[in-house]
Amino acid sequence: MQPLLESGGRMEEEPSNLPVSLWGRVSAFETRAREAYKRKPISHWILLVLSSAAMLIAFPASSLLSRVYYANGGTSKWIISWVAVAGWPLTALILFPTYLVCKTSPTPLTLKLTFSYIVLGLLSAADNLMYAYAYAYLPASTASLLASSSLVFSALFGYLLVKNKLNAAIVNAVVVITAAMTIIALDSDSDRYGNVTDKQYIWGFVWDILGSALHGLIFALSELVFVKLVGRRSFHVVLEQQVMVSLFAFVFTTIGVIVSNDFQGMKYEARSFEGGKSSYYLVLIWSTISFQLGVLGSVAVLFLSSTVLAGVLNAIRVPLTSIAAVILLKDPMSGLKILSLVVTFWGFGCYIYGSSSPSKDSS
């Protein structure tokens, strides 16, 4: 700034400096992007694009299908929890060929690692059940906005358990997203379905927040497993964890479905489902496929790129889900909910900026 002050007044020279500064940043970003592109083969970028598309399409589709299930006559929370993990063999089918391609062997299952997978599987089963209750009582747009609070809990649990760094931008993101959740709570009368009671709506709100908190805990514990027990990061190791956790979650959820007799109840639900049996089973099948594709996409993005890009895609899929729910499911969208959506998106931006800040510990 000193040469600018010497060559003229500050009020005259500062405006000309702003475009130069912005252009310099854009140019530097373009240079870094070009260098990053050249360092990776074209197959890497194709996989990254496909993985990103899977996140942005499959996860919103899974959320909408859960709401479609309840809107058209489905009632079981255990069934929706079960279809969320019933597709775990899809991930296993992708895992096994990686041993041949990468010329690696399966990670040895120690007692601690196996116990960790069992705990994560149990927590994942509980998390899916909480979200099932949320989608039973809340519009898909509202449920997806509330679920974005998992970012807040991921940051907090990551700080407490994994000793991840917190900076001003991340703390600001926590505050902003919490404010967005408060806005939705104040607007509860505008988006409640007519067949949902006040008590059910409140419980849907509570289960969504609790599910988001548990999701954040699962994310931090998964990272802790990598740091403390696995000690190395590669694609097949990430897939191994996903397969094992999903397998145990599938076992726990299947036990819950059997105990609640919901497998027998599927026949009655299919007969009374709007659109008939074929529509009923198509909703469940596509829910299973879309959820697993979303999980695979997120795992691949984390491996091929970074948690920052995964955060960006998560930030994008929240408004995508809300907008799709309004268009396809005729979800109510009030002014306060739009404000909450904008505030949530801003909170994601703060978190991404804080996560990518050079001051953040690279670990």
From TrEMBL:
**What residue ranges are annotated as transmembrane?**
42-59, 79-102, 114-136, 142-162, 169-186, 206-231, 243-260, 280-304, 311-329, 335-354
Print the keywords alphabetically: Membrane, Transmembrane, Transmembrane helix, Transport
Q: Any idea which GO molecular function terms this record carries?
A: purine nucleobase transmembrane transporter activity; purine nucleoside transmembrane transporter activity
| UniProt gene name | LOC110756817
Protein family membership:
Belongs to the purine permeases (TC 2.A.7.14) family.
Location relative to the cell: Membrane
Q: How does it sit in the membrane?
A: Multi-pass membrane protein
Would you say which domain of life the source belongs to?
A: Eukaryota
Q: Name one GO cellular component term.
A: membrane
Q: What is this protein called?
A: Probable purine permease
Its principal location? membrane
